[in-house]
Amino acid sequence: MAANTAEAGLEERWRDILSVHARTMCEIDRVLHPHGLGASDFEVLDILVSAAPDAGSPCRVQNLVGRVHLSQSALSRLIGRLEKDGLVERSVCAEDRRGVYVTLTPKGRDLHAEVLPLQRAALARMLGA
């Protein structure tokens, strides 16, 4: 009986985590939508800003894969959309032609700075910080 109770408690905690995550992502999507971004778009821009604090510093796509909760193909499509919108630029790694770099453009850096307070406020509301 104790094992079933512990298992049920663990399952309930897991479902609570999933629920908080889903509600938080929906709220971030809602506040960023008027700016043409979704939660995952913002996450990539945010990682690029923190990974490359110097404007114009490239980041390997492979380094993003482990930090963004998307499959490699979904991340590739997302980067393609961000590139089409002029927020990032892609380039091929000269040393390893399989490697691809992503660089935040000035437009992407400006949009990130503009929506950062909105995303952080949504996090504070949803996570009670």
Major sheet strand order: 1-3-2
Largest sheet: 3 strands, antiparallel
Q: Helix count?
A: 5
Shape: globular
Low-confidence stretches: none
Number of β-strand runs:
3
Strand content: 5-15%
* Helix/strand order: HHEHHEEH
From the alpha-carbon coordinates, what is the Rg to the nearest angstrom? 18 Å
State the end-to-end distance: 37 Å
Average pLDDT confidence is 89
| Class per helix and strand makeup | mainly alpha
- What share of residues is helical? 55-70%
Q: Any chance you could write out the topology, listing elements then pairs?
A:
Blueprint: H1 2-32, H2 39-51, E1 59-60, H3 61-65, H4 72-84, E2 88-92, E3 100-104, H5 106-127
Antiparallel strand pairs: 1-3, 2-3
Helix pairs in contact: 1-5, 2-5
Protein model, in words:
The chain is mainly α and 129 residues long. It contains 5 helices and 3 strands; from the N terminus they run ααβααββα. The chain has helices spanning 2-32, 39-51, 61-65, 72-84, 106-127, and strands spanning 59-60, 88-92, 100-104. It has a 3-stranded antiparallel beta sheet. Helix 1 crosses helix 5 and helix 2 crosses helix 5. The chain is globular, with a radius of gyration of 18 Å. The model has no long low-confidence stretch (mean pLDDT 89).
